[in-house]
Task: structure prediction
Amino acid sequence: MYLDQEHQVDTLILSPRLARLDASVAVDVRNAALPLIDTATGDILLDLSQVVFMDSSGLGAIVGMMKRAGRERRFQLCGLTPGVEKVFRLTRMDRVFEISSTRAEALSGEAAAGAPGAGG
Result:
């Protein structure tokens, strides 16, 4: 629906196909992601490179995904556009999430910012 998925090595990569992750779609995106997270056997990477706007509902959906992944798995973000990055910075959630600039950086394990090993 709103979410692409792919697997690389032992990581499930989820990519919202939306320009806006806001109240109108956040619950749907979270509900689409949770079963995928539940059945994933490895780490989770949320690629937000297509999202240019996010509100608190979108942030809440991402927090819900991270909590569902649990502490035993790595939950990372990558590809934050300037507007989305600003939301994470203003809410100080950039200190909670492990954030990489690119997908390649995230998959190599070289987080650019955030809390290493953050998982809920």
Notes: DSSP finds four helices and eight strands in the chain. Confidence is low (pLDDT under 50) at residues 116-120.
